[in-house]
Amino acid sequence: MPATGRRRAPRDQPGTAAAAAGQGNPASEETAREICLRLLTAAPKTRAQLATALRRRGVPDNVADAVLGRFTEVGLIDDVAFARAWVASRHHGRGLARRVLETELGQRGVAADAVRDAVSAVSADEELETARRLVAKRVAASRGKPFPARARQLVGMLARKGYQPGLAYQVVREALDADGAASPESWAEAAALGEDALLG
Nearest Cα to 140, choosing from 168, 170, 169, 180? Predict the structure, then answer.
């Protein structure tokens, strides 16, 4: 007696669903748009950051590229503006040095030329003055500590913000000399130990 059951529908081949989603699927594009808008409403994002977020949520790459391209065309994504705003905020607000800003923008997927353009807005003189302001704010709080501890604390603070050891040493020496904290012998001893000792 021949079998009379219904024929089973063939199973989708691996990747069929993803391929269908990537072929201009309106629902998939709408999902991508909603994700991007939600993230951009919370905080500015680079194109690379949004692409990563879409990939994590399973949006096909070709759909993500199309949506991100349209967002870029209308100005909702602007990596150049993002980089400039990032530098202004992080340097003037937190006193971060140029090399740290370069690293942070690179980690967020900003193109190298846009990074250079944004960071170049901070001149060497401006970076030096920012370092001086950072130290000036903390000199008073360090009073009462032994000279080596004061110097180490202030130089270490600048180092963590990305300032080069030579610049950090120079700025801290200026500040502590002006504060009457150290004798020439103290600095001679520090110089004998080397700048790395202060950074430690």
Answer: 180
DSSP state at residue 150: H
Q: 26-55, pLDDT tens digit by residue?
A: 668 999 999 999 999 999 999 999 999 999
What six digits make up the tokens of 84?
Answer: 């400039």
Q: Where are the domains of the chain?
A: 27-73, 79-119, 124-199
CA–CA separation, 115 vs 102, rounded Å?
A: 6
First-residue to last-residue Cα distance in the chain: 88
Amino acid identity, residue 159?
Answer: A
Q: Write down the pTM of the prediction.
A: 0.76
Rounded CA separation 95/138 (Å):
13
pLDDT digits (tens, 9 = 90+) for 157-179: 999 999 999 999 899 989 988 88
Cα gap 167→159, rounded to integer Å: 9
Task: Tell me the three state secondary structure of residue 63.
Answer: helix
